[in-house]
Write a structure and sequence with these properties.
Elements lengths: L5 E4 L4 E3 L8 E7 L6 H15 L4 E7 L9 H10 L7 E3 L4 H5 L7 E5 L5 E6 L5 H13 L20 H4 L8
Parallel strand pairs: 3-4, 4-5
Antiparallel strand pairs: 1-2, 1-5, 3-6, 6-7
Helix pairs in contact: 1-4
Length: 174
């Protein structure tokens, strides 16, 4: 089970992980403004939360800036988040206690929790395929069947005609 937390929300309230118990899927994203990949990850999470909220997907963004972040940093964070257009609750991990409890190693780090708040998946950092990876995890965890339209009928990623040969470097010889 994921370590519980109760953190100060950027909006002035309190954000508790326990409040997400019973929701089919919750993502907890640890981010920092100094991390170049965090911004795009927050944009992507915001879009996916909006798209899948009705299906049971929820998210919490946890700001893990540094151990001695002053409360005056909140204004800087508001400006940073305005560029993401993400309507996702933001928790402030002021002393980085939650960061350490969760053993975060990369920024951003995205943890996926089931209805019992057990970790079911994880993405460290934000590779260029981050949005696609998160959406795949959401669809799998929520049991969603892809919609059948023209865009979805073909493969969405490159797939070699003979993938078993790629490991042997023989694809170019064919």
């Amino acid at each position: 089970e994921a370590p519980a937390f109760s953190l100060r929300g950027l909006d002035g309230g309190t954000i508790e992980l326990e409040a997400r118990r019973g929701k089919p899927l919750t993502a907890v994203i640890f981010f920092a403004t100094w991390s170049p990949r965090s911004h795009q990850a927050l944009v992507d999470i915001g879009m996916l939360r909006e798209k899948y909220a009705a299906k049971g997907f929820d998210a919490i963004m946890v700001s893990a800036e540094k151990e001695d972040t002053p409360t005056s940093f909140d204004d800087t964070l508001f400006d940073y988040l305005a560029g993401t257009n993400a309507d996702v609750p933001v928790a402030m991990d002021d002393g980085l206690n939650t960061y350490h409890d969760w053993h975060v190693k990369a920024m951003p780090s995205t943890y996926f929790l089931d209805k019992d708040l057990r970790r079911i998946n994880f993405i460290g950092s934000a590779p260029s395929s981050y949005k696609m990876m998160v959406e795949d995890i959401i669809k799998e965890a929520l049991g969603l069947v892809p919609e059948e339209d023209e865009a979805d009928k073909g493969p969405t990623r490159y797939q070699a005609a003979r993938p078993q040969l790629l490991g042997y470097g023989m694809a170019s010889k064919l």
